[in-house]
Design a protein that fits this description.
Distance between the termini of chain A: 39 Å
Strand content of chain A: 35-45%
CATH class of chain A: Mainly Beta
Largest sheet of chain A: 7 strands, antiparallel
Shape of chain A: globular
Radius of gyration of chain A: 18 Å
Helix content of chain A: 10-25%
Structural class of chain A: alpha+beta
Number of domains of chain A: 1
Oligomer: homodimer
CATH architecture of chain A: Roll
Number of helices of chain A: 5
């Protein structure tokens, strides 16, 4: 089936949002933890976190100022830090529920039954139930003018991860942590490793890593 | 296990690259198709494509100017277009092999056995074997100064997808297309849907979409 630009443009808004959100491929599932000026916790799920670089260790994340994530963006600007907490299968329902439009004075932790865990390097709460958690220091926010979104760039200040998931070479097998991936806005998936491959070389066929 | 900034900084370079690349969560797997000034095809796998917005339909992608992907970036700048082709299980070995440092005059299609397919809206090749393909028009390139990478923003001009994977509401079930996700630099995963959830509301528990 073929859709051209005019077909996309003429889709009903909700259909288009659902369709286009499926087109980038599998997405990461992270809970962003922040605190506001009164010290109140905020938590929201994002599917837009991506790797930006290993040295310095940087992650990017797209936030939409005009959605429920406004609280998150304001808190990040205020405190210049946030946590990222990978979503696993045991907490997928609660994680999705953090996308509801709770009032600013309501804590998504309390509302969804997730547990805030203090972080010893930044003033932002981890999610206790997450098996891979990152403390992030805000580096910069780049406005994406074309659609009025914000690229939030953060540097990793701390990683907490169950060590049985880390291979000898530093690879973290997210399947060992029961992690989930997202498709579109609301589809949650578990994943199963096929292979790891050796670094590809022009004069060799693809080799499966033992 | 806990790693602080100093621990990350003191890791051996390859270990750190492998470790930090695992920390964003599951990643999308796409083949970028371009042509150069002589009309020669180029193809390379990227794990950095992300959703940027549905209307206009925009995707972002991070490219590193100082890696094998230089050809890709130059071609995108030259022709102001590229294709994105989701990777499925049947072509995962070939897709990984496109990351080898072939010479500019060598076609990764020929070298890996993937098949170029003409696109009728832009001068860039699709990958015939891919089950979800996008023709992209370059919108802009934003330099990320902090680590000398480039954010390539493109608008979707055409979508080709097997229609049995599209739900009534526009959702595309990537599992139906046998698509793969990536962890780190070299880990490939298949995915299995758990649930889709209804739009979350503050006064209701999370509801599974029927």
């Amino acid at each position: 089936m073929k859709f051209n630009a005019a077909d996309l443009s003429s889709m009903a808004q909700r259909y288009r949002a659902t369709f286009v959100n499926s087109l980038s491929g599998y997405k990461s599932a992270n809970l962003v933890g922040t605190v506001d000026a009164q010290g109140r916790h905020n938590l929201c799920i994002v599917n837009s976190v991506f790797h930006l670089g290993a040295h310095p260790p940087l992650l990017g994340m797209i936030l939409r100022p005009h959605t429920v994530r406004r609280d998150t963006l304001e808190n990040i600007l205020l405190k210049e830090c946030y946590t990222l907490n990978h979503v696993n299968q045991a907490i997928v329902a609660q994680a999705h529920q953090t996308s509801a439009r709770y009032d600013a004075e309501e804590s998504e932790f309390e509302k969804t039954g997730l547990t805030p865990q203090p972080c010893d390097v930044i003033p932002a709460p981890y999610v206790l139930e997450s098996k891979l958690k990152l403390a992030m220091k805000l580096v910069e926010i780049k406005p994406i003018e074309i659609n009025d979104t914000q690229l939030v760039i953060g540097q990793i200040e701390q990683v907490i991860v169950e060590d049985n998931a880390i291979s000898e070479d530093g690879f973290v097998d997210l399947q060992q942590l029961d992690e989930v991936a997202i498709v579109g806005l609301d589809g949650y998936y578990t994943a199963t490793q096929i292979h790891r491959y050796e670094y590809a070389k022009p004069d060799k066929p693809p080799l499966i890593k033992k």
